[in-house]
Write a structure and sequence with these properties.
Bound molecules: S-adenosylmethionine
CATH superfamily: Vaccinia Virus protein VP39
Distance between the termini: 46 Å
Largest sheet: 8 strands, mixed
Number of domains: 1
CATH topology: Rossmann fold
Order of helices and strands: HHHEHEHEEHEHHEHHHEE
Mean pLDDT: 96
Radius of gyration: 19 Å
Length: 290
């Protein structure tokens, strides 16, 4: 049987899979711009700036650093005089840690590196002003979310802020993989966890939680078959299945047909993302919508 979800994720977050990753981000880079523009991050960092020391931030499952890259481009952080953020990176892939580190520039300063899973993180309790995980925890199995998220809660200062952005089950990222497993893996293998499972696990940990949903559409021309194929392969971390096979194997064929728009000859993938803020008290859920 093919390797399970987490192992395939690790195989694809590697130097060997760089070309596939870059093709994926031709379509998915925008995911992070939406996150950077949904909240007023400059206002949030501005308020945290009142603290008289460099801020400490943990980027959990940092991937290739598309979220800090988007914040540096779109969040207006450059207006904040004196902002300095010690930016720690955690990811089981050393490729990801290297990639994310290269993106960082002021006010973000590369800090500690943890090459491990969130579940295995020996975190510094009460050390962080901010901990976030953006499109990051899909490969943490649902039953391990409590262990992982407890680390994210524990690492926060009493007045720290946590943030998780993760696809919901009825949106493309998570829903596609459910249908993919059904069609091509006999329903076997670990499903991606989704934003609702993250929110539920955080609530069970007893922290203050506020969540909202972000919806948008990823559009790809049906004429760009290679891009479409590598995007979908990356969504499932499986490059052994061709586009042709996906388009002809049920129930995936029906799902993909439902995304196809005849008039424009495009595929429209509907994204539904759960955005969850958490903190030790309601008063610290300080992110304002933009
Ligand atoms: C889509 S990327 C995250 C994107 C990133 N937030 C960004 O800003 O570009 C997902 C990352 O999760 C990592 N990952 C997978 N399982 C993990 C786990 N259990 N704990 C921590 N990271 C994990 C992968 O190695 C990969 O680098």
């Amino acid at each position: 049987m093919a390797a399970d979800t987490f192992q395939r994720s690790c195989d694809h977050w590697s130097d060997d899979a760089r070309a596939e990753m870059e093709a994926f981000y031709e379509l998915a880079r925008i995911d992070y711009r939406y996150l950077a523009e949904t909240y007023d991050w400059a206002d949030a960092f501005g308020r945290l700036l009142a603290r008289d020391e460099p801020l400490r931030l943990a980027d959990i499952a940092c991937g290739s650093g598309k979220f800090p890259e988007a914040l540096l481009s779109y969040a207006g952080l450059e207006q904040l005089d004196g902002l300095k953020v010690h930016y720690d990176l955690l990811d089981p892939s050393d490729f990801s840690v290297r990639e994310a580190k290269q993106v960082l520039r002021p006010p973000f300063e590369a800090g500690a590196e943890y090459c491990c899973t969130l579940q295995d993180w020996d975190c510094d309790a009460g050390a962080y002003d901010i901990a976030w995980a953006t499109h990051a925890l899909y490969c943490v199995p649902a039953e391990e979310l409590p262990t992982g998220l407890e680390k994210m809660v524990r690492c926060l200062k009493p007045d720290g802020l946590g943030f998780v952005a993760q696809g919901l089950r009825d949106g493309h990222y998570v829903g596609f993989y459910d249908v993919f497993r059904e069609a091509l893996q006999d329903g076997q293998g670990t499903p991606y966890s989704d934003g609702a499972q993250v929110e539920a696990a955080l609530r069970r940990l007893g922290v203050s939680v506020r969540s909202r949903q972000l919806n948008y559409t990823t559009v790809v021309s049906a004429g760009r078959e290679e891009l479409l194929e590598s995007y979908l392969q990356r969504c499932a971390f499986d490059d052994s299945v061709s586009l042709e096979k996906m388009l002809s194997t049920e129930p995936l064929a029906t799902y993909l047909a439902s995304c196809y728009q005849q008039g424009s000859h495009e595929y429209h993938f509907e994204q539904r993302i759960g955005l969850t803020l958490f903190a030790h008290s309601d008063a610290r859920l300080i992110l304002r919508d933009r």
